[in-house]
UniProtKB/TrEMBL annotation:
Keywords carried by this UniProt record: Cell outer membrane, Membrane, Signal
Name of the protein in its database record: Membrane protein
Domain of life: Bacteria
InterPro entries, per the entry: BamD (IPR017689), BamD-like (IPR039565), TPR-like_helical_dom_sf (IPR011990)
Pfam families registered for this protein in UniProt: YfiO
Signal sequence annotation: 1-21
Domain Outer membrane lipoprotein BamD-like span(s) in chain numbering: 36-221
Length: 271
């Protein structure tokens, strides 16, 4: 029974391949176009793509060319060939700038970059590119129904970039590169000023500078504890109602006590 089933499947596949080969060999381009559209409608994007590609140079300037270009671009997209799809979506808007589909193609071009946005640990060039293109789309089409989704995608991409920067800053702290960590957390705050975690990032800045001061040579400690106090004061001014204020006050007290101890030791030494 199993052998019989496999034979039937093989026969059907062979028939399908044979039929497609005949379509490809046909010199009746109207027929070939109808078959390409049928393959596309049946989601057989590989076969449709091959036929559209053959017809592409033959239909330029033809009133059917726009639909062929449109379907051809989506063939690449549905097969997850996002780099090629991006080029085709972009090309469509350049060839048919006044088409009623141009807005859709602009959006889909940006969306292909979003589909190529990798895991947080990897290079985020495509994520940044998504933000730029989606924002351009919103600015160019202020009344588009796609703007809600475009805004949501921008927010997701920014959250990913923020998380990547956070992990980088945390890594510096964990490997005891405290000065680099302080700078990284400061940059994180500056790059994402509207983040809900801004007060957390500022506390990390304070912690990093405090640990940096602790590990410094004696001649530099007082100066670097002063930097901790400066950051603590900035925290209080910027986040007066933060739940992290108690932690900041503790670092401020520790820094002040350490500065006093250093100055007292200097007085004893000079005496």
């Amino acid at each position: 029974m199993r052998v019989f089933f496999l034979v039937i499947v093989a026969a059907l596949l062979g028939t399908g391949c044979s039929k497609f080969a005949k379509v490809q060999k046909s010199t009746d381009y109207d027929y070939k176009l109808r078959m390409a559209d049928q393959y596309f409608a049946k989601k057989k994007y590989n076969q449709a793509q091959q036929l559209y590609e053959e017809l592409f140079p033959l239909l330029k300037g033809n009133d059917k060319f726009e639909n062929v270009y449109y379907n051809f671009a989506y063939c690449a997209y549905y097969q997850r060939d996002y780099m090629n799809a991006e080029n085709l979506f972009k090309g469509f808007t350049e060839v048919f700038p006044t088409s009623k589909r141009a807005e859709e193609m602009e959006y889909m071009r940006a969306y292909t970059y979003y589909k190529q946005s990798p895991k947080v640990e990897l290079d985020q060039t495509n994520t940044s590119r998504t933000i730029g293109l989606m924002q351009t789309f919103i600015n160019t089409h202020p009344g588009s129904e796609r703007n809600k989704e475009a805004t949501e995608i921008i927010d997701k991409c920014r959250a990913k970039l923020e998380l990547k920067e956070l992990r980088s800053a945390e890594l510096y702290f964990n490997i005891r590169q405290y000065h680099a960590a302080a700078i990284a957390f400061t940059n994180l705050m500056n790059n994402f000023p509207d983040s809900e975690k801004s007060d957390e990032y500022k506390l990390h800045v304070i912690r990093s500078y405090f640990e940096y001061a602790n590990l410094s040579v004696d001649e530099k400690k007082a100066e670097r504890y002063e930097k901790v106090l400066e950051e603590c004061n900035e925290f209080t001014d910027r986040f007066p109602d933060s739940k992290l204020k108690r932690d900041v006050d503790r670092y401020s007290s520790l820094a002040q006590n350490n500065i006093k101890a250093i100055k007292n030791e200097q007085v004893k030494t000079s005496a």
